[in-house]
Design brief:
By secondary structure, this protein is α/β, with parallel strands linked by helices. It has eleven helices and nine strands. Strands 1, 2, 3, 4, 5, 6, 7, 8 and 9 form a nine-stranded mixed β-sheet that branches. α2 packs across α10, α4 runs parallel beside α5 and α6 packs parallel to α7.
Length: 306
C-alpha cells in the first residue's frame, strides 16, 4: 500500500508541475450525449488560438475520442522526446491536442476499461504530457458526471471552471442540470452554459426550424442562477466541416454558428485572468492581465488556489 501511495503522490507532483505552467484549465461537460460538446470544445479552441492564445485540448472522452478527427489530425501518433513524457500533436503553432485516439492502432477498436483504468489514463495524460506554457487547457469530457469528470476535478484542484453544453430539448436540459449540480457539489466554478443546436435555419427558405425547441438552456440558467454564454444554431455546413477536419471558425466565418461560437470564446477570453478560484463573479469583467499570468503569478491573490 505504501508503494501505491508513493506512486500516487509522485504522479500528483508531476501533474502539479505541468498544470502550474497553464493559465486557465477549463472542463467542458454535458449531462447528455450528442449535444455537441466536442463541437463546442474544438471551436472554442480554434477561436482562442485565432485570438493569439496558446491553447491545448485534452480529450478524456476515452470511449469516443473524436477531437482528433474534428481537428483534422486523425492518424497522428503519440511521440516522445525523452522516452518519458508525451508530446501533444500540433494542429497549428499555438494549438495542440492530446487524445487516446493517437494511441489506438485500430480506430474501430473499442476501449473496454473499468473506472480504475480510466482514472489512471487521465492522470497519466495530466502528468506526462509536455504542454509547456499555455494560456488555456480545454478538457473535453464524455457525457455524464462519472469517473472522467471526477478524476479531472480531483487531479486539478485549481480548475478554473466548467462550461456546460446542452440543447434546448427538455431531456437534454434535465441532464445538464445534473452537470450544474455536479460542479456545485465538487466546488468547481460554472463559467456558463451554452445552448447548442438552437434552431436550424432552412437552407432553402431561410425560415428557422426549432428542431430541439428554443431557449431551454437559457431558461435553465435563469432558474439555476448560472451564467448563460450564448446559443449556437444548427448548420449543415458546420457538420460537414467537422467531418472533414476543417477549422469552422475560419472556414465558416460568415455563418451564424461560427459567429456565435467566436463570440462565446471572446466572452471567455475577456474574463479576469485570475479566475482560478471557485468564485467567478468577476469572470466576465475586463481582464487585468494575460490569461497565462496565473501560472507564474507570485502575488498573494485570493484567486490563486494553492
Amino acid at each position: 500500500m505504501a508503494e501505491e501511495k508513493d506512486e500516487f503522490e509522485l504522479t500528483n507532483e508531476r501533474i502539479r508541475s505541468r498544470m502550474d505552467k497553464i493559465g486557465r484549465k477549463i472542463m467542458v461537460m454535458s449531462g447528455k450525449g450528442g449535444v455537441g460538446k466536442t463541437t463546442v470544445t474544438v471551436n472554442l479552441a480554434n477561436e482562442l488560438a485565432e485570438l493569439g492564445c496558446k491553447v491545448g485540448v485534452l480529450d478524456v472522452d476515452l470511449h469516443g475520442p473524436n477531437v482528433a478527427k474534428m481537428f483534422g489530425v486523425e492518424g497522428e501518433s503519440l511521440s516522445s522526446a525523452d522516452g518519458v513524457s508525451f508530446l501533444p500533436v500540433k494542429v497549428k503553432e499555438n494549438l495542440s491536442v492530446i487524445s487516446l485516439a493517437f494511441a489506438l492502432e485500430d480506430p474501430d477498436a473499442p476501449v473496454i476499461w473499468r473506472g480504475s483504468m480510466k482514472m489512471g489514463a487521465i492522470r497519466q495524460f495530466l502528468a506526462d504530457v509536455e504542454w509547456g506554457e499555455l494560456d488555456y487547457l480545454l478538457i473535453d469530457t464524455p457525457p455524464g458526471t462519472g469517473d472522467e469528470q471526477l478524476t479531472v476535478c480531483q487531479a486539478i484542484p485549481e480548475l478554473t471552471g466548467t462550461i456546460i453544453v446542452t440543447t434546448p430539448q427538455d431531456v437534454a436540459v434535465l441532464d445538464a442540470r445534473k452537470s450544474v449540480n455536479f460542479s456545485r457539489k465538487l466546488g468547481v466554478a460554472i463559467l456558463g452554459v451554452i445552448e447548442n443546436m438552437s434552431g436550424l435555419k432552412c437552407p432553402h427558405c431561410g425560415k428557422e426550424i426549432p428542431i430541439f425547441g428554443k431557449g431551454g438552456g437559457e431558461r435553465m440558467c435563469l432558474d439555476m442562477h448560472v451564467p448563460f454564454l450564448g446559443a449556437v444554431p444548427m448548420e449543415i455546413d458546420l457538420r460537414e466541416a467537422e467531418d472533414e477536419g476543417k477549422n469552422w471558425i475560419t472556414e465558416g466565418a460568415s455563418h451564424p454558428s461560427s459567429q456565435a461560437l467566436a463570440e462565446i470564446a471572446k466572452i471567455i477570453n475577456a474574463g479576469t485572468a485570475c479566475s482560478t478560484s471557485r468564485d467567478t463573479s468577476s469572470f466576465a469583467k475586463p481582464a487585468s492581465c494575460k490569461p497565462s499570468s496565473c501560472a507564474t503569478c507570485t502575488l498573494n491573490c485570493p484567486s490563486r488556489k494553492k
